[in-house]
Every structure is written in C-alpha cells, then in structure tokens.
Amino acid sequence: MLRSRQPGDYEQAVYIQRYIEEKPMTLHVGMTTSDDAILVGDVRVYADVTVELPQQGVRESSVWHAEARSKITIADGGNIAIARAHDVTQSRLVTKAIADGLTRAYWNNPEEKLEELAAAALAGEPIWRGVHCLVALRLPSPSLFKIECAKDPTTQQNVCVCHRGDGYMVAGDSHNPSTFFGTRYLQSDPARVWTASELLPLAVQIVVDGGRVSSGPIGGLEIVCGSSSVPFHRLSVPERQAWSAEAMRRSEKIEKIVSSPFTATTAGAANQQ
Predict the structure, then answer these.
(1) pLDDT higher for 266 or 46?
(2) 268 belongs to a structural domain
C-alpha cells in the first residue's frame, strides 16, 4: 500500500535500510550542481540460481550468481536517468514504472508521483524484498531523488518513501566506508560550489574504492552524465576504464600519504609551505 509522507519518514527510511542491507547489493552515487547531474555506479548483478550438484549428492541448490550488467536506465529521450539497487527483479519493475509514468507534468515536484509509481509497480509482489532507486532529472533544472521500498520489519507494512537530494545521494550500500569521501568533501563544506568536472572524480572514487572494500557485491563501473542543456548519456567502455584506472591510482597515492611516517622534519617542511 502507499503511505503518504509523515514526520517520521527519516526513521522509516532507516528501518528500510537495515532490512535490505542483509542482501547482496550495489553502490550508486548521484550528484548534482545547478547545471549538471551525474549517476555513477557498479555493474555487478546477483541472481538467485538453482543448480544441480550430483557429485555432492545434492539434486538442487540455490546459489548467488554474479554477472556484469547495466543498472542505470536512461528514459524520456535523455531527460530522466534511474539507477537501481538491491533486488534485481523488483528494482527493474520500479525503474520501468518510473520511466513510463513520470511525465513532464510532475518534474517540478515528483516525490509523491514517484512513491505512487513505485508502490503500484510492486503491488502484485507477495513480498517486497527491498528496492533503492536514484532518479535524476535534468529539467527544469538538475535534481536528484531517492526512492526506498521494502516491508517495514517493525510494522510488517509495505512502504515506499521518496526524498529529494541536496546535491549528493547514495543508493545500495550507503554505509560502505568509501562514502567517507562524500561526507568529508561534500557535506563538510556545503557552502562550496562544485562543478561537474570536480564531482565526477569524487563519485568515481566512491564507487571504485567501494568495490575494493566490498569486492563480492560491488564491481565494475558505469557513468551517466547530463545537464540542463545536454541529455543524459552513458560514457563509453574505454572512458569508464580510464576513469576506473585513474581512481585506482589515486587510491594508491592516498594510501601512501596516510601511511607515511610523521617526523619533526616533515612537520617543519609543512609549516614552511
């Protein structure tokens, strides 16, 4: 069922997050400026597959199978980009409903419509297994929204909650240690005006390092960019490979810096600069 937003929605979202974090997940980062929107995520998808293991005396066994697949959908001629996380099948249902039903009339304030579309997409599912979606719009100006759908483990009610972002949002493994970069550099200085060319390396770093910290459920890289004047588009494989390699090099540099011995000579040199 669809529940209207209430003052306790933040706590509700926390319950949902705790519930769906028990499953294999992805990591998506959304960022916006006054003129640009970016979605960056991994491409590892897990599915529940039944296999036969006769040599072990097992007729059927359910296992997790991983494969690389896009998890960001571009819709409405490049005006909408949707990143999906958590349950593969149900997140696709929500993504399709948004792509088909979020018409231009709702783009200024789409929160309630997004909740309605997500709830309707999952209405036929006997169990809501957990869905996260980041929705980026480029018109009338770049904006970012996060939808969370799951069964509340406390009330046992199916709940969809949508929040508008303030320029930075994470879906999927939102407690991954790599999200430190967003907390440290974006949220610690809200007065700073960032450009897309500055945000993209930061978003890529979060996803790439997130995969190194949690290599089982997170892997690969996907980048979608757009602006108020340029439709959303997907960066090519060579471009994504170059961004990933640069993030790996940057990570190694950071490791060397933070693990360098501290001496009085080092401190003196720093003070002179």
Answers:
(1) 46
(2) no
Range of the domain at 157: 9-50+58-260
Nearest to 144 by CA among 203, 91, 197, 220: 203
Percent of the chain with pLDDT over 70: 77
| Residue-wise pLDDT tens digits, 77-87 | 999 999 998 88
**DSSP letters of 64-123?**
EEEEE---EEEEGGGTEEEEEEESHHHHHHHHHHHHHH--GGGSSS-HHHHHHHHHHHHT
165 found inside a domain? yes
Question: Mean pLDDT of all residues in the chain?
Answer: 83
Backbone φ and ψ of 216, nearest 5°:
-70, -60
Task: In whole angstroms, give the CA distance from residue 247 to residue 205.
Answer: 5
Q: Exposed, middle or buried by CB within 10 Å (0-12, 13-18, 19+), for 58?
A: exposed
SS3 label, residue 169: strand
pLDDT value at 2 more than 90 = no
Closest CA to 35 of 181, 165, 194: 194
Confidence of residue 60 (pLDDT cuts 50, 70, 90): very low
Dihedral angle, C-alpha 213, 215, 216, 222, nearest 10 °: 110
